[in-house]
Amino acid sequence: MSASAGAGGWEPVIGLEVHCELRTATKLFCGCRNAFGDEPNTNICPVCLGLPGSLPVLNVRAVEYAMRIGLALHCEIRPSLFHRKNYFYPDMPKDYQVSQYDAPINVSGWLELPDGSRVSIERAHMEEDTGKTTHVGGGGRIRDAEHALVDYNRAGVPLVEIVSAPDIRSSAQARLYASELRGILIATGASDGRMEEGSMRVDANVSVRPAGTYEFGTRCEIKNLNSLRSLGRAIEYEIGRQVALLESGQAVAQQTRHFDEDAGETVALRSKEEAFDYRYFPEPDLVPVAPDAGWQAEVAASLGPMPADRRQKLAGLFGTGPTTPARDDQIATVVELGLDALMLAAVESGVDVGLALARTANEAAADPDRARQLEPTNYVALLRMEAEGKISATHTKTLLADMFDGGGDPAELARRRGFEALDDSSLAAVVADVVAANPDEWARYRDGDDKLTGFFTGQVMKVTSGRANGKAVAQELRRLRG
Amino acid sequence: MTGAPPPGGSALDLARSVRDGSTSAAEVVERHLSAIDAVDGELHAFVTVLHDGARAEAAAVDRAVAAGEDPGPLAGVPVAVKDNLCTRGVPTTCSSRILEGWCPPYDATVVERLRAAGAVVIGKTNLDEFAMGSSTENSAFGPTRNPHDPSRVPGGSSGGSAAAVAAGLAPLALGSDTGGSIRQPAALCGVVGMKPTYGAVSRYGLVAFASSLDQVGPLTTTVADSALLFDVIGGQDRRDSTCLERPSPRCTAALSEGVQGLRVGVLTELVEGADDAVAAAVRQAADALVAGGAGLEECSIPELRHGLSAYYLLAPAEASSNLARYDGVRYGLRVEADTVEEMNARTRAAGFGPEVKRRIMLGTYALSAGYYDAYYGQAQKVRTLILNAFDRAYQRFDVLLGATSPTTAFALGARVDDPWAMYMSDVCTVPSNLAGHPAMSLPFGTDGAGLPVGVQVLAPALGEPVMFRAAAVLEDAAPARTLPRVRAT
Amino acid sequence: MAAEPRLTRDDAAYVARLARIDLTDEELDRYAGQLATVLGHAADIAALDTEGVEPTAHPLPLRNVTRPDEPQPSLDRAEVLAQAPAVEDSRFRVPRILAEAP
Question: Quick one: which of B143, B245, B409, B459 has the fewest CB in 10 Å?
Fold first, then answer.
């Protein structure tokens, strides 16, 4: 558990609830399309509209995806029931939500973060999504609205809700958790992780307590955070707000809050003091779900490597020595952007690991969508050209941009740009000319001022329009010096 | 078969004559529409009569017959459909103001199967609002009257369907049974009413009252018609997760098997508390089965005494959730207001009748925090006790016998002010719903006032064939039926 | 028969709020009384010993009833909206919402 005491001896205690939309073709209980952005109320039927007489039938792929998520989070898969969660809201066609209550499909898992800390997962259960409400008038917010409009396309879309234990101790750790979880959800194939489209939504439960104590303080729930940045900012603000209250002798009121992006503050929602009574009871229109051992094994066998596994594989390429935060960051970037295949291809064909990582984490990562579409053989060829000194680092970056634009064989692209490196004798001649043209600098270099290597390399580059290989220049200078 | 032939002919007879061309479906439907027009003003069995639709469907059947195609086993037979079953493009009101005028965009599975069998949907029948009641007095559109004595109730909640069949306005009707709503009105109106095994018939398109108890079933004048209609509507439906995957048991074949060697138990708890005439009918029915070669013993299942209490916690609880969707947002009645919360609350206040409100309140309370374990949770456990007790009984017996309703038809208005007295009408029928078992009511004589008495045959889950065997024998042995005062001529 | 539980008007009002039904004071009092009577009758089961008895949520032993993840035709939007009490921009229109979803 990552140690952290908050401001002035207060320990933040954070739990996250993540709602993840599943990438099924159809909704959880009916055959309507599960699609984002369609014309309003075009993907509706008696079931997801909750028309009188309609009945739910469970989507088998949603169950499979729920299991994939559970297994990726090291959960135990249990026989489970659906329950009705009863409350009124216009985006709820039946005015109850079919969810899972005390018999969820996945329990008792955990998630290890890149910083080595571990967060327990209490449960990951299935439930249906609601429709979408748009508030009209008053700037689109509920508070000053004149009326509201409801679109039921999203009603009935399958969700998995992942509930962490309150093991998180800082906003940074919360962001790391959300980011790692997102990577896992994408890796399972169950979700596209597009927070900006609402396919992954985070609620944060935040409380504080005096550092070193064990009793939980009163917590507030911040709902519907839809970017990692908002998550971090909202939690930071909320911790500060609660600490300020407690330090001034006031109590923290248990509330549901909303994050105001513009003001950077959490704001209390208009809600009742009493805890809402959902009157959960087992859903009589559905029967229990109990995936047998065979099905579980099938799903487990089909799971690919998780982000942590992929990071470990890249780290292993550097041998067993100690790593650096910079290297870990770069590795994390490569995995998060799905560029590990490119890097591995380069390393496998002999490109130096450090070079492969640097180019992939910096240059390729500049345009990850295009990078992912590159032919690995071309990417490898480019890096090999640099590794063998045929082109400079600057040229590599230029050629990569060319490859993003139209792809193609890097050797051909290099020829077109005239980027071929100078051969040894031409290089020696140019270095000799530059040395002769700068006698004072040459004197200082000859006397041991190695910093002038850069000066001479720059001059050589100017003369050759960047075609010289920096290492080769340095080598030649040293040779001349003797 | 003893007793007067069913007014208008049995469905089997009608279908046969349509299929062999001796009658036209058009003529059959015209005859029944005239009867409805003549008589339903007094009875009010129907909420909507489908003159044009029925004629069109009949014409299609006649075309099929003319073309030498198979028009189906129910060819040209008019069927009255309880108004809580969805019929596409046709108002489906559940006898409630909150759904007044609402037309579903789809057909219930059972309605699809009726049409596929060549039946003609002649109208939607009156019910207690959202199927909650035992007298059809809770309808928002006025009560239905008992054809045998129009000052009396037809029973409920499928009172309209039972009255329509009893009066000869349609040979077949569909009803729904959650706590006795097919069987009790069948008994009070002198017709055959059958509740299938839970899951034997699809609930897709049946507007839900209590999801773990509801079943769709036939109301008919003969046992053979009941078996036929059950065979048509039953069986697997992929749109209902609680519908059994096996094909439902074929019952028409079982009708002639007799009861030789059958072990029959007279269920004490279903006779105690019954009026003398009703208890006498049960004894007579028992004698008839013995005469047919069955063995007979008394059977007591004390757990059944708790059935009514468990039912009146479970059913309202599920109903309170099933009826939440009626909020004025997407369809049906809306009473405008400044906020959506107020709009919901005023719409539901205006749209629901007092019995529905009472049950929603009761069910909400039974599910609420602090009371769930004592009420709903405990009722679910009592359900298990009843199921287990039935299972033990069915090790000794093949079928059980008892009263359907403790009394014959009571007067309109007699029980409306005493909810528990009204709920007591269901004491003999709720156990089968709680257990998910099939049960059916047969007319078996009358009381001193000439009102029909029903006897009830109960069977274990998927025991429809043995149930129909006993029912067929009882039908033959039953005293002559009296014709209802209000009927088709 | 066990004693009837006491239900006050406030109890009934709370239930009516949960159930979203506007009731008059007279109705609240009436339902409070009727609920108490029914619950009193039902109290005979409260006394039953159900130690170790599993609740029956379904009378059927079915498990794992599912359907394949294949698209089916949706409803015609016009047909659905034609029956809606209020429509704007092809969406269902409702009065302003006072409270956020719980």
Answer: B245
Residue B419's pLDDT is: 87
Catalytic residue among B17, B157, B176, B441: B157
Helices and strands (DSSP H and E) totals, chain B: 15, 11
Give domain status of residue C64, yes or no.
no
H helices present in A374-423, as ranges? 376-387, 393-406, 410-417
B204 closest CB neighbour out of A53, A88, A277: A53
Could you say which of A301, A332, A358 is where a domain stops? A301
Q: Is the model's pLDDT at A3 over the cut of 60?
A: no
Question: B303-335: per-residue pLDDT in tens?
Answer: 999 999 999 999 999 999 999 999 999 999 999
Q: How far apart are CA B94 and CA B89, in angstroms?
A: 15
Which of B56-70, B144-158, C1-15 comes out lowest in average pLDDT?
Answer: C1-15
Q: Is residue A1 part of a domain?
A: no
In the predicted model, is pLDDT for residue A275 greater than 80? Answer: no
**Residue B82 is a catalytic residue:** yes
CATH number of the domain within which C29 lies: 1.10.20
Please provide the size of chain B in residues: 489
Q: Specify if C80 maps to a domain.
A: no
**C85 with B320: Cβ contact below 8 A:** no
A415-444: average pLDDT = 84
The helix/strand/coil state of A222 is strand
Which residue of chain C has the CA closest to A292?
C64
Nearest CA in chain A to B110: A53
A355 and A403 share one domain: yes
Same domain, A40 and A113: yes
A85 shares a domain with A29: yes
Q: Facing residues of A163 across strands?
A: A17, A123
Q: What percent of chain A has pLDDT over 90?
A: 71
A100 and A117 inside one domain:
yes
Quick check: A329 contacting B, CB < 8 Å?
A: no
A70 touching B (Cβ < 8 Å) = no
Does residue A2 form part of some domain?
no
pTM confidence score: 0.91
Q: Which residue has the tokens 């590795």?
A: A331
- Tens-place pLDDT, residues B431-484: 999 999 999 999 999 999 999 999 999 999 999 999 999 999 999 999 998 899
Contacts of B342 in chain C (CB under 8 A): 22, 95
> How would you classify the pairing of strands A106-112 and A76-77?
antiparallel
Number of domains in chain A: 3
Residue C82 lies in a domain: no
Q: Check whether residue A371 and residue A474 sit in a common domain.
A: no
Give the containing element (helix H, strand E) for A123.
strand A118-128
DSSP C79-100: HHHTT-S-EETTEEEEEBP-S-
Owning domain of residue C16: 9-46
Name which of B309, B346, B435 is nearest C59 (Cβ-Cβ): B435
Q: Answer yes or no: is pLDDT of A253 > 80.
A: yes
Catalytic residue flag (residue B124):
no
| 8 Å CB contact of A59 and C90 | no
- Does residue A110 register a pLDDT over 70? yes
On the 0-12 / 13-18 / 19+ scale of CB atoms within 10 A, B53 is middle
Cβ–Cβ pairs < 8 A, chains A and B: 93
Q: What is the pLDDT of residue A142?
A: 81
Based on the fold, state whether residues A228 and A281 are members of the same structural domain: yes
Instruction: Measure the CA–CA gap between B32 and A249, rounded to whole angstroms.
Output: 82
ipTM, 2 dp: 0.96
Residue among B236, B202, B205, B237 nearest B217 (CA): B202
Note which residues in 172-191 of chain A have CB less than 8 A from chain C: none
Q: How far apart are CA A81 and CA A104, in angstroms?
A: 7
State the total domains in chain C: 1
The last residue of a domain, from among A383, A417, A451: A417
Nearest CB to B103 within list C39, C43, C83? C83
**Residue A63: its chain C contacts at CB < 8 A?**
66
Same domain, A288 and A153: yes
B368 at A interface, C-beta within 8 A: yes
Q: Is residue C34 part of a domain?
A: yes
